[in-house]
Amino acid sequence: MSLPDRHTFYNGKPRSNGSSGPTFQSIDPSTNKPICTIHTSSASEVEQAIRSANLAFPSWASTPPVERSRILLKAASLLRARNDELAKIETLDTGKPFSETSTVDIVTGADVLEYFAHLIASGGLNGEAFHLRDSAWVYTAKEPLGTCAGIGAWNYPIQIALWKSAPCLAAGNTMVYKPSEVTPLHAQFLAEIYTEAGLPDGAFNVVYGDGQVGSLLTKHPGVAKVSFTGQVATGRKVAGAAAGEMKYVTMELGGKSPVIVLPDVDVDQAVDGAMMANFFSTGQVCTNGTRVFVPEQLKTKFEEVLVRKMQYIRPGDLMDPNTNFGPLVSKIHYEKVLGYIKHGIDVDRARLLCGGPGRPESIPLGLKDGYWVRPTVFADCTDDMKIVREEIFGPVMSILTYSSLDEAVQRANNTELGLAAGVFGRDINQCHRVVKQLQAGITWVNTWGESPAEMAVGGWKQSGVGVENGRKGLEAWVRNKSTLVEMGGSVPTVFAKL
Ligand code: NAD
């Protein structure tokens, strides 16, 4: 399949501008074949996109919330109507099975659009008013920020685009969005859907390219906020550039999250959770629970059940509804993950329980050039191993054993990252006690990975700044204005006549 070229999208349309500049390709990760040419946005195209967002801002900001809500709801219904078409694009671009993209990626994006549309129509942007004293009162307003930049990672392309643009637009801001250069195809579809839904030209714009293009956004004085999803190291650069211009930021960064299995656990349930926390999306999920802490006395049982269930992971043709495991997203990422798997065996010397280097055996011949790795489990891991310390962002689980719960919690927290954490156990009080002590912004009890629109999510420590979704997610796109009104007829002053 080959798709038409992608160009910078601003003021309501893709603009080819003569198309003589540099280009890059979107590659189908399952076959290593190019599917689309993308034209890198030039500095002047980025400028045009920001200008177009700046010009659209005043009128969009003063559109009543109920009217903005109606447009966003229309966009959500267009997304749902085109779910499968968009899911196919996401499957081609990311390498995720259609069984996943058609049930998760677009759906969870449209949910958030609906959530924020309903929230603003039902008073979510209202301020407060209170009497300060008999003669004075105070009222507050939530004002939009202006033009905001959204910069996305490659793993949940359309979901990330929607988790940023939905609250941004709902709050009355405009956006210039840069998808990851690895998975950029969703962006034009989303821009076109917004236009079709009635969003004014210029309110949502798309620029294409790598970090260089991203950095034009982060330091531009016409951009009021940067909402970034990506690696911690990139996040530091982005937040640094934005701080120079005193911009608002939201940072959604990486993790190395712990799963703590309690001694009284239903082992089947804990294994299912640990598998979701490591192999869903081929392990390319920021909240992955890659450090699985198992009580010493459960180690053998846990490993037995896990090995038995690993056979339910089914790599293969991505459009086959039974396929639930795809390739990694790109050649570079494939090499990185494979490097970690080899390091785990050769240097860390962890015990390889499943997987290892090489492609899954069941991959059909037509897909042999794709970026496939085997779902891999290391056992007898220790906290100092590189595979246990660093974010791999691939299907690599590390099992660690513990003897006391205090020790497990202390070791789980012994990381600079704090994105997610979870507990599996039958004693729900004990689960809550453990969750209370875990240093992470997103925590789960007896489940893993669900992130509904109503739930604010964001990392602690080096894993991020601020949250997305939930009521708090809307607050991240407004600034407060407080007004004190004096009705006493005289201004308090020290400059009165003696
Ligand atoms: P990345 O940091 O390499 O790139 C992210 C985006 O930043 C891309 O669009 C890239 O072009 C852009 N970029 C790169 N350098 C830049 C610069 N100097 N200025 C501005 N923009 C720049 O991340 P990635 O490899 O695409 O994504 C994987 C990472 O994202 C993982 O670490 C994962 O944990 C994280 N992630 C976090 C969340 C979350 O919600 N916390 C969600 C998804 C992914």
UniProtKB/TrEMBL annotation:
NCBIfam families: PRK13252.1 (NF009725). This is aldehyde dehydrogenase (NAD(+)). It catalyses: an aldehyde + NAD(+) + H2O = a carboxylate + NADH + 2 H(+). Its EC number is 1.2.1.3. The lineage of its organism: Eukaryota, Fungi, Dikarya, Ascomycota, Pezizomycotina. Residues 14-31 have a biased composition (Polar residues). Keywords: Metal-binding, NAD, Oxidoreductase. Gene3D superfamilies: Aldehyde Dehydrogenase, Chain A, domain 1, Aldehyde Dehydrogenase, Chain A, domain 2. Belongs to the aldehyde dehydrogenase family. Residues 20-482 form the Aldehyde dehydrogenase domain. GO terms for molecular function: aldehyde dehydrogenase (NAD+) activity; metal ion binding. InterPro entries: Ald_DH/histidinol_DH, Ald_DH_C, Ald_DH_CS_CYS, Ald_DH_CS_GLU, Ald_DH_N, Aldehyde_DH_dom. Residues 1-31 are annotated as: Disordered.
